[in-house]
Amino acid sequence: MPRKRKSDPSLYAWDEENMKAAVMAHLKDGMPIRTAATLHAVQKSTLSRYCKAYSASADEEKVSFRFTPRYDVKKVFSSEMEDSLESYILLSSRMNYGLTKKRTKKLAWEFAKANTLKYPKSWDDNEAAGEDWYKGFMERHTRISSRRPESTSLHRNLGFNRAAVDTFYKHLEELQSKFHFPADRIYNMDETGLSNVQQKCRKVLSPKGVKQLGATTSQERGKLVTMVGNINAMGSFIPPYLIFGRTRFVERLLDGAPPGTKAVASGKPGNAWMTTDHSAWATSELAPTAISRARAAMSAMLLESFMLIGLKKRKASRKPSFPEAICSKYGECPQ
Length: 335
Fold this sequence. Notes:
One of its GO terms (molecular function) is DNA binding. By secondary structure, the chain is α+β, with helices and mostly antiparallel strands. It has helices at 16-27, 33-39, 44-56, 59-63, 79-94, 101-114, 121-126, 131-140, 154-159, 162-179, 279-317, 322-330, and strands spanning 187-195, 224-232, 237-244, 262-265. The chain has a four-stranded mixed beta sheet with strand order 1-2-3-4, covered by helices on one side. Strand 2 and strand 3 (237-244) form a beta hairpin. Helix 1 crosses helix 3. The longest helix has 39 residues, at 279-317. It is elongated.
């Protein structure tokens, strides 16, 4: 049985006034229930249920009788409680301590139990909310989605806070207002780890009944290769810099790498971390780039000045045409 039943929207296309008029037409005016349902555009079975409930209620209850469906009659949490639960989940995610599906269902059970709410007995048996509640909660709160988080170290988590970010941008603003760096001189450098083995193999076709299925790779466990990238605010980038965890470096390791890629060996087998100073690479890459751009800018300025001088000389040495000579001789141009 599907967890979410597909129903006909026309079954619920009536309002409170239509249902109340149909109930009164059947109970007070004696109109047949089928005729009253057709006349007021409501479902016959629904009208019959409301007529029985209205007849069984007391006189003082008939004054405030509700002629609309109560879809939230079995709702565990109120809207305010679900909003607070959503806020807690989002706050936990922003603090890099996001809740898993299992932990969220357990939290919902603990929340309902602490507030002495009415919930299904299966929640106590499993000590967690049910799958139906979880699916409905995710559909009602579209700001929450199930995603795979990225591993973040505690050092980076503690270092990334409002005070540290404000200090960084304060220093950046002071340096920018003092030196006026152009966009092509502001670089961002970051490192990442690459593996020479696929983390997950794709699905392949195989015979049925085979318990063990393998896929040939270079190694079962990949070796880490550190890649350092540099990109400026204009979108231009420097070829990557690779660090291999081996004693000696051989050129064939760069087969298939992007043009201009530089690489070194860390000198320690199995250790490709950036534990040593690699500023020489950055200097050797950034300095020629800056010099070449400065030379290009200077060449463009010289070319522009030469073109202006040439145009002025050409204009001064150009002989006047026949109309210009007539105008200069008689003081006016002939009509």
